[in-house]
Amino acid sequence: MEFNLFFIINLLFVFTVNAYIEVDYDRTNVFDPKIYEDVLNKEQCDQQIKYIVTNAILLRFLDASLRIPRSLQKGNLVDLGSYYECLGIKKNEGDMNIEGKFCMMKIPLGQNISLDRHSTRFPEIPWPEINPNILNIDDKTHKDLLSQRELKRKLQILGGITPESIKRDDDENPLSDISIELAVCIPKTCSLQNALNTVLDLQPTDLQIEEAYCRLPNDKPWVAADYVALGIFICLGVLIALSTAYDLRHQIFLKKDPKTANKLALSFSVYTNTLRLVTYKPVPGALECLDGIRAFAMIWVIIGHTFVNQLSTATLHNPLDAKNFALSFWSLWITAAPITVDTFFALSGLLLVYTTAGKMTGLKLVKNLHLFYLNRYLRLFPVLAACILLQASLFHRVSDGPAWEAVAGQTDRCRQYWWTTLLYIQNYYNPNYMCVPHSWYLAIDFQLFLISPLILFWVVNGTRKSAWTTLVTALLASLTGASIYNFTIGFKAGPVTFGPEREGQPNYLMYYYVNTLTRAPPFFVGMIFGYILHINRGKKLVIPKVQVALFWFLAIILSSAVICSNYPILQEDWDYHTVDDILNSYMRSVWALSVCWMILACAHGYGGPINWILSHPMWKILGRLSYAMYLFHYPLIIVVNGNSVVPVYFSTEVSIQKFMADFVIAILAAYLITMFVDAPSSVLIKHFMGGAGGKKRQEPVKPLNGINSAAENKINGNLEAPNHQIVNKTNK
Questions:
Q1: How does strand 96-108 pair with strand 90-93?
Q2: Domain Nose resistant-to-fluoxetine protein N-terminal: where (predicted)?
C-alpha cells in the first residue's frame, strides 16, 4: 500500500494540472507575506512529508489536490482540487503539527521529464521516463487551445486584468507554448520547491516548475481600508436606524404630516427613501422612454459582462466550446454588447442639451461654471467612492477560493490607484491597471462634460443658426479627428478578434477603447438630438408618415448592421484593414443616431408599441438604480466567480441562469447602496448647495449622465433644475 500510494502521488505530481488567472499585481499588498515566511521550516518539512507518505493522512492530501483535468480535448487545463479541504487539514502527531497549504505551480508541457532516480531515499520505487506528449493533444486541439488562451488574455485585458505573456520557447515542440498549472496540497512548513525536492528528489534540470502562489487560512491582513470601510458603514447603519425610527415614529405612530418633519433627520430613512424610489409623479415634457432605454442597455451590459467574465475570470470545464460559441453567429447578442456603452454616451449628450437649453443664459453658465462642474462631481462621487472603498477592502474579505486571484488583483489596483478613478483620469494614467475597470466610461463621460460648456454657451446664448453651427461643427470635428486617428493607427474593429495579429499595433484597450477621442462622436450626436428635442419642446413635431417609416427602416437596418458586423470581424480569417478602420470610425455614431431617432420618435408620438414598452412604469426603478447597478455589478460578478471551487460547464442555458443571479444581486446591491449612500448624499448635497434665502427649491431631477440616476441639483438658484424628468427624491 505504501509503495503504490507513493508511486501514484509522484505520477500525479507530474500530470495533475490546474489553471489559474494569470494576473500581474503585487500579492504582498493583499496577502500577508509574513504568514507564509514564518511557517517555513525545511527540517520540519522533510520530517512531516516522510510521515505523510507512510500514513493514512496521505489520502487526505491526495484527495485535496491531485486530479487529472477532465475534458482536455475541450480545452480544459483546469482542476481546482479541493481548496477548503486542503486548508482544513490539521493533525497533531507527537511534536509535529501537520497542516495543509494550498499551492499552485506552472509546468510547461513542452519538456521531457526523466525521473531516473539517483537518490537512495526511496530506492524501491521505479521512476519511468515521462513524456507529456502522451496527453495526445492533436494539432487542431493545440491550435484551439492557443486561440482560446489568447481569447482569455484579451478578455482579461478588456476587464482590467493584465495577464502575463507566455512565449513559445521551442517552435519545434507543439506543446512548448502551453503550460499547465498544478494544484497541490502540501504541509504548511514546506515551500513548494522543498516539497518537490523531498518527494521527487528532483535535480534542477529535471523539471521546469514555477510557483504561482500558495494560500493559507487567514492570510488576508487587515489594512487601513478595511477599518475605514467598517467604520463608515457602521456609522451609516446607525444613522439609518435612527433616521428610520424617527421617520416611523413621526408618520406612523404620531400620524403627523410628513412635511413637518425635519428634512435632514429624514435623509437616512429607509422608509421615506424607498417611498421616493417607487413613487412616480408625471412631469410635463418628460422623456418617458429614457427609463426603458436605460434599463435595456443596463441589462445588456450585465449579461455581456456575465458571459465575458466566464471566459476571462471563471474556470471553465469546456473553454473551447465557449470559444466556438463566441465565433458563432448566434453569439452576436453577446459579442455585440460593447456597443451599448455608446447608448449611454448618446443619452448623456442628449440630456445635457435638453436639460440646459432654455433654462439659463450663456452669462449664467459662465458665471456658475465652477458650480456646474462641482455639482456634477459631487453627484457622481458618493457611489463611486463607496464602490472603490468596498473593492479595496470588504469585497476581498467576503469570501475566498482557489480562483480568488482575480478579486485580489482588483483589490490591489484599488489600493494603489483609487485616486486616478476619483479624478476621472484612469483611462489615461493607468488604463491597464484600473481600479473598478468599467469606470472608464465615467472618466470619458466626465471629460466630455468638462468640454461641453464650449458648445453649450453657443446653444443657450446664441441664435438657432449659431447653435446648429456649433453642434454640427463639434460632431464633424470629433468624427474627423477619430477617423484620422483610426485610419493612421489601423486598429482591429473589436476588443476581441481571432484573426492574425497586426505587427506593431498599439494596445486596443489603451489607445482606442478607453480613448476620449474615439468615443466622443456618439456624445455629440446625442447633443444634436437634445437640441432638436429642445426646440420642439411642448409642441407636436409633424413628420410625414412616409418619412417616419423610412427613418424607422434606416434605424433598424443600420443598428442591425452594426450588431451583425461583429460576426465577420471575429472570424479567424478576417484581415481587412480598411473595413476595420471604417467600423472603428463610424459604427458608434451610427448606433447613437439610431438610438436618438428612437427617442425622438417616441417623444413625439411616432414610437407605437416601442414607445409603450420603453415608457412602461416598470422600468423606472431600474432607471433610478442604474448608476449604482452599473458600478457594482462588475465587481460582484468577479467576486462570485472567485468563489468557484470546481470548473463550470459553459453553455448558453447555464450562462443565462448565471446572468439572472448576477442581475438580481446587482439590483439588491444597488438598492442597498442607494439607501446607505446615494439617497442620503443627495439630500445633504441639495441642502448645502441649494438655493439660499429660504426659496423653495425644486426637487432634483435625473442627471446629465446617460447611466446615472443621481440628480443634477439646482445650483445657488441660478442654474435651474430642468423639469423634463420624473421627480426622484430617492436617488437625487
A1: antiparallel
A2: 42-216
What global pTM score does this model have?
A: 0.84
Dist CA 56 CA 262 (whole Å): 69
**Residue owning grid cell 474593429:** 493
β-strand partners of 211: 105
Dihedrals phi, psi of 646, to nearest 5 degrees: -140, 155
Residues with Cβ within 8 Å of 374's Cβ and at least 6 positions away in sequence, in order, are 689
Per the DSSP assignment, residues forming a β-bridge with 184 are 103
d(CA 618, CA 630): 18
Q: What dihedral do alpha carbons 649, 655, 659, 665 form, nearest 10°?
A: -10
Using CB atoms within 10 Å of the CB of residue 156, give its burial: 0 to 12 exposed, 13 to 18 middle, 19+ buried.
buried
Helix (H) and strand (E) counts in the chain: 31, 6
Quick check: helix, strand or coil at residue 437?
A: helix
Compute CA distances 347 → 289, 293, 337, 417, 719, whole Å.
11, 9, 17, 29, 20
pLDDT along the chain (732 residues), means of 10: 35 31 69 90 89 85 79 76 90 87 79 49 42 52 61 54 42 57 87 78 60 89 94 95 93 86 90 90 84 94 90 77 87 91 96 87 86 92 96 94 91 94 92 90 96 92 88 96 94 76 76 94 96 89 92 96 92 87 95 96 93 92 93 94 87 92 96 94 85 40 44 34 33 34
Q: Count CB atoms within 10 A of the CB of residue 577.
A: 13
**In the structure grid, which three cell numbers stand for residue 129, read together?**
521516463
H helices present in 355-439, as ranges: 362-367, 369-392, 405-422, 426-429
DSSP code at position 648: B
Residue spans of alpha helices (H) in 490-576: 508, 516-519, 521-535, 545-564, 566-570
With a CB cutoff of 8 Å and minimum separation 6, the contacts of 17 are: 68, 69, 77, 78, 79, 107, 180, 181, 182
Lookup result for grid cell 466566464 = 310
If you ran DSSP here, which 8-state letter would residue 124 be given?
Answer: T
Classify the C-alpha dihedral 729-592-310-26 as positive or negative.
negative
The whole-angstrom distance between residue 347's C-alpha and the CA centroid of its chain comes to 21
